[in-house]
Batch of 2 targets.
Target 1
Amino acid sequence: MHVPPRTARRCATLTATALLALTPTAATAAPARAPSASSVQDVAVCTAQVDNPHFSNGAGSVIFKARMSCTANGNVPTVNLRVWGTLGYVYGGSPGHPAQGPPSTAATSDQTQTVPTNGQQVTYYTPVPDDRRKVTAAGTYVGSVTFQIVAPAPGTVGREQGNYVYVQR
C-alpha cells in the first residue's frame, strides 16, 4: 500500500491521560479508582506533535522533535511526562519520494520532563542532544513516540507517528 508523503506537522489524536481524584483523607492527589466519573475532580491530558525527521547540522545527525503539550481540568499545575522516541529508517527513497515499509530502528530516546498543564509545548529530541552516536545515512526516516504521564499519578499510554521523509545531508 502506498502512503503519500505528508509534509505538514500533525497533532496526535491519541492522548496520554492521567485521572486524579483528591481523596478526603490525603493532601495529595491519588489515582482515580472511583466507580463513577462524577467523583473525578482533576484530569490532565497530554498530546504529541511529531515533527518530520531532518539532518541537524548542530547535532551532526538525523533527528526529529516531538513537541508535547498538556492541559488540565482542576488542580494539576504540572505533570511529569515520560516520552520514548524511536527514529526509524527505511533504505531507499529520493527527495520528495520517501520509501515505505517497516522501519528498522536508527536511534531511540527515553526522557522524562516536567510539563506545565497550561498548553505550553515542551520539546523532546530523538536522539537526545548529547548522544554520541550519529545517524548520517541518506534514506527514508520516520519518527514515533510513546508517552505516558508518570506523576503525579500514572496515566494511560499514548502513541504518535510522524511522516516518512527522505533525508540526506
Note: The first strand starts at residue 10 and ends at 11.
Target 2
Amino acid sequence: MKKIIQILLCAFLVSASAFSLDFGVLVTDNTDFYKVGENDFALDQSEIITPSLKVPFNTKDPIYFITEASIKHKLNSDFKDNTTNKFVLDLPLLKFSATHRFTHRTSISAEIGRFAVSDSTGIVFNQANDNILVQFNSPYFVLSATGGWTGLLNSQNVEMINSSNAVYTSDEGLYTLAAPYFTAIGSVTLPYFIFKQSISAEAIVAINTQNNDESRYWFTGNVSGPLHNSLFYNLSTTFEICEGRDLANFTQLNLSYFFDFLSSSVNFSASYASPDFTQFTKITASSAAVTDTYSELLKLGLTASIIPVSKLYLALTTDVLFKAPKDNISYYGFEALGTIQYQVFSDLQLSLKASTFLGSDASTNKTDIAFAFTIAF
C-alpha cells in the first residue's frame, strides 16, 4: 500500500512539474463590534491565513488540481471578564476538476473532492462538502448531479440544521467532525427556453447515516429571465418533505433593475418560509440579527448599490421581517445594512459594514460595526 501511495505521489509531482504551479496566500482580518439588547458592546476578532495551490495538467482541456487550507484565530471579548481565544484548522477546498469540450458550446465536466456546493435558491444547501459532481452543458439544456458526505467536515466552520430546526455545531478542539449526512443534488435547466426565459427543476436529498428520522427531501422549481431591457426577475418555490411533518414550503422572488449610470442597480426581494420549513445549511434570514433561520418567516427587502468611482462599491439594504406561524402574521423587526468596499490595489481590499436590527422585542435589537481587510500574496 505504501508503494502505491509513493507511486501516485511521484506521478503527481512529475506531472505537476511539467506545468506551472500557481501558489498564493490570502490574509484576512475581521474586527466586529456588536451590541445586543441592553448589553454593552462586545468584540469578535478573527485572523485567517489561507494558502492555496493550483496545478494545471493539460493545455487542451482544462484539467487541474486545486486546494486551499485555512488557519483561523478567533477572539471574543465583552471587555470585562469574559474573553475566549481559539484556533480552528480547516481544508475548505481540495478537488480535481476536468472539462472536455465537444464543441464550442457543448461540454461535460467532472469534479471530485471537497468544494462548495449550492442549490438554485442559495438558501437550502450552500456549503463546502465532500462531493463527486458531473455536469453536462449545452445550448439547449444543462444537466447536473452531485453526491457527497458531510461526516469529515469541520463543524466549527459549517453549521447544519437537523429536521427539528436545531443547529449541530461544536467549539471543541481544532477540528471537530460534523454530523454525518449523505447528500445528493440533481437538476435540469432549460436556458432561454421561451421568450428568453429559463426554467429549472431540482431535487435535494439529505439522509442522516446515523438516524433515518433525520432524512429530508427538497424539490425546487425556478423560472428567471428579463422582463424588459434592464429589468430581470427570479422566482423559485421549494417544497420540503420530512416524515412526521406537514409539507413545508419556501418561496422567494427577486426583481432587479440595472441602470446605465455608474453601474448602479436596485433589487427588490420577497421570501416566505412556512412554519415547518427547515434548511440544511444554516443561513440566517437577517444580516443584522444572526439567530434567525428561514422558518415561519416573511421577509421583504430592498437593496441599492452603486460604484461612484473606480474600485469603490457602496450598497444599502433594508428589510422588514414578519413572523408567520400558521395562525397569524405579526411584525418582527426592521433592519438596515450599509456596505463600503474599496479595492485599494489588486491585492488589497478594505471593507466596512454597519448594520442595525430593531425588533418588536427590544431584547433582540442589535447594532453591528465590522471592518475587514484582505491581502493577497
Note: The two ends are 37 Å apart (CA to CA).
